[in-house]
């Protein structure tokens, strides 16, 4: 036995070379030292044997001696330039030895011969990035993803995930990742499995890892952007969106993704420029025309928005959302030709396309309302709402119980018991209430002040409240009251600071105060008080029949599930009034209430009282709010760009014969309004 064999003490020297090679291959991963001994023994008996040279190089690499492995494998490759296993080992040894150029040469040869070997492409991408060939590296990653699309293991995991067998899919991916720890498609799929389970933290970790391992993995970066948007991490989303637009694929969808991020950031101008560029290259894109219309509407360019929406329905007459976008420009009236076109679109549409159908019903409701045919208008509004209610459920009993629990939590004694705490910054002004109650008007008035910046409906307080509620849902606390009571003054300060940090990206002007106009924050006035004790809170309120009917005929994109049934609206309004009354009792004077009808009747007086509550000096610009050219994203965007008019105050009375369910659900709230 040779010295190496004697060291192992288990292999007789008389073993045939092919048997030694077989044993070496078996022990390569678990015992690379033994595999090397066996390879050397074969080479002494058969100098230059290719399989033994390959085994020796493989073993040396696994023993952490990549330079020696590279020497062996380079010599072997000179005579075996087309052997995939030799090229693969040479590339890995060169990579580990820091010789990127030799690794690239081996991998380029390997991927030419065997383009279906995904791992070869991904390793090539990593090496190309080391030598500064970023675009070539990107293409290599894309080729690796393409090759992976035919991988049986990945296909089985994807099928299991799509069929809801998430545990099975995860098990398949874990087995693969044991073998290939840095396999980008498996890592991305694992992220999607966690996302489908609702674990956003793990989903982000996995997908971020996929993009880190393969920066040219466009589909993973696309998914990451969407996850970041869901978590309101807008700066990071924009960074990734800008990178994605540099893809060698030049996919127009990547520009659309960037535009969607810009919209979320409030950069409507930047988004509109992207849409216009895409349409310049290819005009027959109804979705892009619609997106452009949204941006132009927000910027106050109404005529241009109308043109964009009309181009959208020109290219796709059944595009319900584009019709609704036209109708939703409150200062635009759809005429008889429009009504005929929409009625024809309804006939042509497959009933399964429910989104288009319901949008057309809402649009026809608005068109018939403008035409004075109230019965036809109500019928279409009713049909649209019934369709939407079936898609977006709302449990009025559960919601009433939640608000009652909130009222019983934030009592005066409870608040007093919490003592000092919270972030003392006075920056935020919260405008709360129900949608269609005049909050956009109040925002436009205040944002016309030199010290106040208007932003948009920010989701950040809802996100913080939702995270706190999840601690109750997961069993950490028995109820919301106990959880809130557990927050120390330092905890509340940290939460207030978190809110300011999360919203900082929306503050562009340097003004000391800013507005958060998310209406639903009325549910969290108690939490706002505890974590931001110096913030101002304004309750924008409107007559319950006017507010309720206006909300019912307004199709909201998201977030207002109660608005699709008149009885649900009435009960929701009652819960809102009761909770705000409880907050008034617990925190007298904390909330300033603005009644829409009073603002319309006496704008200077109401504006003066509003500014006094905020501690701001009166400025004439607040009375000329319609001259403010800031972006406005809500349904009232066009109405607040003109002086106050009184038409909407009693408009609901035209439809009073059909509004019995709303009036009945409102009960005593109706005669008590304004007291």
UniProtKB/TrEMBL annotation:
Pfam families: Sulfotransfer_3 (PF13469), TPR_16 (PF13432), TPR_8 (PF13181). Coiled coil: none annotated. SMART domains: TPR (SM00028). The keyword DNA-binding does not apply. One of its GO terms (molecular function) is protein-tyrosine sulfotransferase activity. TPR repeats lie at residues 286-319. Keywords: TPR repeat, Transferase. SUPFAM superfamilies: P-loop containing nucleoside triphosphate hydrolases, TPR-like. This is Sulfotransferase.
């Amino acid at each position: 036995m040779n010295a190496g064999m004697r060291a192992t003490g288990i292999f007789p020297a008389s073993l045939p070379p092919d048997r030694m090679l077989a044993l070496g291959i078996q022990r390569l991963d678990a015992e690379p030292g033994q595999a090397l001994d066996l390879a050397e023994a074969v080479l002494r008996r058969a100098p230059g044997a290719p399989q033994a040279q390959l085994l020796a190089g493989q073993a040396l690499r696994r023993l952490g001696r990549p330079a020696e492995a590279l020497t062996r494998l380079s010599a072997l490759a000179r005579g075996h330039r087309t052997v995939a296993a030799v090229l693969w080992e040479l590339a890995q040894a060169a990579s580990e030895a820091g010789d990127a150029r030799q690794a690239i040469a081996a991998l380029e040869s390997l991927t030419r011969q065997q383009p279906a070997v995904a791992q070869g492409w991904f390793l090539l991408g990593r090496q190309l990035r080391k030598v500064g060939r970023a675009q070539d590296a990107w293409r290599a990653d894309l080729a690796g993803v393409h090759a992976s699309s035919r991988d049986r293991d990945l296909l089985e995991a994807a099928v299991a995930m799509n069929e809801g067998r998430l545990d099975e899919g995860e098990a398949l991916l874990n087995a693969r990742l044991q073998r290939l720890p840095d396999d980008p498609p498996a890592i991305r799929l694992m992220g999607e499995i966690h996302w489908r389970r609702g674990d956003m933290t793990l989903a982000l970790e996995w997908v971020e890892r996929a993009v880190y391992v393969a920066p040219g993995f466009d589909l993973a970066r696309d998914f990451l952007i969407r996850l970041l948007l869901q978590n309101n991490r807008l700066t990071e989303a924009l960074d990734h969106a800008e990178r994605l637009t540099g893809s060698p694929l030049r996919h127009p969808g990547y520009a659309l993704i960037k535009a969607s991020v810009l919209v979320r950031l409030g950069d409507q101008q930047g988004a509109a420029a992207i849409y216009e560029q895409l349409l310049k290259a290819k005009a027959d894109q109804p979705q892009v025309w619609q997106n452009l219309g949204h941006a132009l509407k927000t910027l106050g360019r109404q005529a241009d928005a109308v043109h964009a929406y009309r181009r959208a329905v020109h290219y796709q007459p059944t595009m319900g959302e584009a019709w609704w976008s036209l109708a939703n420009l409150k200062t635009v009236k759809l005429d008889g030709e429009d009504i005929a076109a929409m009625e024809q679109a309804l006939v042509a549409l497959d009933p399964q396309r429910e989104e288009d159908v319901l949008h057309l019903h809402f649009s026809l409701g608005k068109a018939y309302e403008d035409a004075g045919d109230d019965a036809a208008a109500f019928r279409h509004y009713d049909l649209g709402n019934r369709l939407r209610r079936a898609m977006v459920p709302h449990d009025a009993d559960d919601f009433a119980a939640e608000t009652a629990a909130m009222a019983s939590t934030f009592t005066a004694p409870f608040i007093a018991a919490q003592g000092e705490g919270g972030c003392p910054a006075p920056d935020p002004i919260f405008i709360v209430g129900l949608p269609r109650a005049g909050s956009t008007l109040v925002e436009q008035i205040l944002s016309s002040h030199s010290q106040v910046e208007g932003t948009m409906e920010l989701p950040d307080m809802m996100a913080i409240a939702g995270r706190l509620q999840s601690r109750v849902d997961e069993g950490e606390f028995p109820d919301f009251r106990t959880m809130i009571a557990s927050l120390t003054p330092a905890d509340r300060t940290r939460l207030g600071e978190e809110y300011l940090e999360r919203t900082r990206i929306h503050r562009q002007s340097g003004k000391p105060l800013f507005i958060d106009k998310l209406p639903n924050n009325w549910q969290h006035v108690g939490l706002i008080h505890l974590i931001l004790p110096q913030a101002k809170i304004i309750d924008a309120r409107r007559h319950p029949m006017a507010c309720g009917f206006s909300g019912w005929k307004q199709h909201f994109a998201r977030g207002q599930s109660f608005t699709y049934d008149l009885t649900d609206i009435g009960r929701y309004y009652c819960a809102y009034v009761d909770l705000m009354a409880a907050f008034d009792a617990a925190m007298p004077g904390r909330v300033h209430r603005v009644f829409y009808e009073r603002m319309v009747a006496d704008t200077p007086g109401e504006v003066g009282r509003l500014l006094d509550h905020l501690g701001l000096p009166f400025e004439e610009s607040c009375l000329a709010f319609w001259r403010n050219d800031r972006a406005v994203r809500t349904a009232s965007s066009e109405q607040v760009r003109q002086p106050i008019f009184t038409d909407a105050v009693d408009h609901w009375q035209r439809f009073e014969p059909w509004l019995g369910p709303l009036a009945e659900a409102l009960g005593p709230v109706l005669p008590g309004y304004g007291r």
